[in-house]
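Hi R.,

Here's the input for the adenosine-5'-monophosphate-propyl ester complex you asked about:
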Amino acid sequence: MSDFDSDVVDPVRIDNLNQENRTFAPTPEFARQAFAQPGIYDEADQDRLAFWDKQAQRLNWTSPWSEVLDWSQAPVAKWFVGGRLNVAENCLDRHLANGLGERVAIYFEGEAGDTRAITYAQLHAEVCQAANALAALGVGELDRVAIYLPMIPEAVVAMLACARIGAVHNVIFGGFSADSLSSRINDAEAKVVITADGGFRRGKELPLKIIVDEAVKLTPTVEHVLVVQRTKSDVEWFEHDLWWHEQLAAQPAEHSAQSFDSEHPLFILYTSGTTGKPKGILHTTGGYLTQAAFTHAAVFDLNPDTDVYWCTADVGWITGHSYVVYGPLANGATQLMYEGTPDTPHRGRWWELIEKYRVSIFYTAPTALRTFMKWGDELPAGFDLSSLRVLGSVGEPINPEAWMWYREVIGHNNCPIVDTWWQTETGAIMISPLPGVAATKPGSAMRALPGIGIDVVDAEGTHVPDGVGGYLVLTEPWPSMARGIWGDPERFIETYWQRYAKQGFYFAGDGATRDLDGDLWLLGRVDDVMNVSGHRISTAEVESALVSHPRVAEAAVVGAKDDVTGQGIVAFVILRGENNVDADTIGAELRNHVGQEIGPIAKPRQIMIVQELPKTRSGKIMRRLLLDIAEGRALGDVTTLADPAVVQLIASGMTTADDA
Ligand code: PRX
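And here is the predicted structure with adenosine-5'-monophosphate-propyl ester in place:
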């Protein structure tokens, strides 16, 4: 099944937003000192490839490229053709060579309050040891290494160590279950897994090693499991297990980095598509690092000598890859890394950390902001947030109320807000205001970054006028674009490139509209991908998890609007056999089952036990109607239903089990 075989929302159904009249220009002082000045757009427009050529020169290359872009094998791009570099060398060694070895790269704060300040020199030494340790275990160029770690500095070390020796990392978010973990390890055929005994989350231990123990029973390619000692709790020990600290201690803290081709694979990161099987998005070296580093500097207005940067994303997501690891470290930034949740040990924890470390650039997700709004303004008011100067948002559309709250309560009306649109597949930020240039509007991602081509089009690929909703497309190749789906080149084409093959556009899967000033508003996914707290989850994945439970005959899942999480997962389930069950009991059982199959992040918010599902005459489930029911709206068009009475039956006969 292709990713297009889905119930794509018709652009005419995309709500058109009211024109937003409030605009917020940067102060003259901010504008004057900003990294990106207004002329940058013209410069890129005049010669896009020359623009990217210049940005690539921010990095250290050991051999120059002969051509900026080779698009002859489209849609698989080659950027900076023939150029050679080492990513870890760019993130570490060259800063040491520039006399920045004593600069703090990472201020780490554990959930329990334990801290570490790691300089670039220390990070370099540890990455060298880890690179040597991996090599000693037989990990070489192009071998895959799965990383399943909490938010601790060792995650950064592990990623950079892989990059240093040309191995390909595959980071899997710690919230995924053993099943999800093993299927990702198997798809990538990873040779080594790097994990920890556990991590601290919400005052409890997240038992990562136990999950890995279960997963690796099903992964024939895994030869070794390297275990970071974090919680020091007892773990069961197997023949393939090795302690990370012991392996590193046995290695020298020097390693001379070899350079790799600009198109050498750097990492695979799995993300949800519209089918049940996650896609291993492949990113390569030179183009990826160029765009990650450039956008990190330009969008956040980074001054590496004075700023303290904090991105709250987990390294298990693309935001953590590009804006915790590669962008900031390539730029020689000082950043904060926090292990835990925002409410432990108290709900002011994040604001307390901003005060403590004098954080100046802060990058987080709208779902977190909406949670804080609910918790009340007095929490952030209790801390000194005056160090902040730029605020960023990512992962989902930010509603104007949350945007204004961010501006007023966190930024004290002093900080430009950058709403950054991008995806796992784009590798780096594509749409965002530049903070010293744009007069921002609450809720708008404003415009494409310099060097990036976008448009809003209809189903045929024709540009739609301003003020009309349509599909967001990327019209030109960009340096950090995905180079494929691991092991499935056809799916890469089908998912992103087939729909607008004639025009050569990349189909992003998002709805968008430009307002009458030409500024962009993102309107959410137009396919069967949900966005729950900024996490991408496919309806098909949750459905297949549900039907794998013996009591479930059929399931249909929709992402219903949710005030805090953006969307919430609502499942409609037809049970097998006896139906007079206690909805709460079966609901809890099914939720846990989904948690086990995919991970806690995919547990439905609500499960509705129904007798029937609305289907078209060809047997396709009509999700739009289910969405209407889940969001409590008047029912939409039912004329194509095989049996129009079914909807009434569902609406009147369902028993619901809500998430406690
Ligand atoms: O729907 C868009 C939404 O998140 C999707 C990408 O998800 P993922 O690959 O997990 O990457 C998230 C972090 C980059 C997009 O297709 N999205 C991301 N950022 C925004 C957004 N929607 C609206 N506004 C944003 N700023």
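One thing worth noting: Residues 271, 318-319, 394-397, 419-424, 445, 508-510, 522, 525, 531, 536 surround adenosine-5'-monophosphate-propyl ester (CB under 6 Å).

Cheers,
M.
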